[in-house]
């Protein structure tokens, strides 16, 4: 399985961009004589926070999309360029995601901050491992099978950190007011990288 497939599978396993599940229930016809009240307007600060939270989640999806299938070339120069291109793009996306997630702490709901911290730590560890792999390959002249193998192993370590971060996202149990705020955003309404809705 290629790196992109591994990352996409990790994203799906962690609950990003997944449909909600549940048991279907019968819907009663509304009583035309009943009165209803409009839901309270979401706090603007909560809406802004959720807009950024969901938007940053999309960056994690982009991180998966920036990877490529490893080449089968036997030319060390081709292998080196492909590896450096892949890790460079991946690190760039992780840097952007880390900056955004760090700006989201403290959150409007202090009870979710510990899992946000785990998310940030996982991304940072993954980024560090991938950067080390990139630097090893950059310094290799020429690229040897031993160096390339070590770099692939380190890249795998980075992916595990990335997966740990996605698990942390899945464990973030948003309070009702942030769920309500999500409905007023553009990023959270697109069905991509929507925050978990499990309780």
SSE blueprint and pairings:
Layout: H1 3-13, H2 44-65, H3 76-103, H4 113-139, H5 145-170, H6 176-182
Describe this structure in words.
The protein is mostly helical and 199 residues long. Residues 1-39 and 191-199 have low confidence and may be disordered. It has one domain (48-189). It has helices at 3-13, 44-65, 76-103, 113-139, 145-170, 176-182. Helix 2 packs antiparallel against helix 3 (76-103) and helix 2 (44-65) crosses helix 6 (176-182). The protein is built from six helices and no strands. Helix content is 61%, strand content 0%.
Order of helices and strands: HHHHHH
- Total strands: the figure is 0
Radius of gyration: 21 Å
Number of helices: 6
The stretches of 5 or more residues where confidence is low (pLDDT under 50) are 1-39, 191-199
C-alpha end-to-end distance: 33 Å
Tally of structural domains: 1
The largest sheet is: none
Query: Which of globular, elongated, flat, extended, rod-shaped describes the shape?
Result: elongated
- The residue fraction in helices comes out at 55-70%
Mean pLDDT: 77
Strand residue content? under 5%
Helix-strand makeup class: mainly alpha
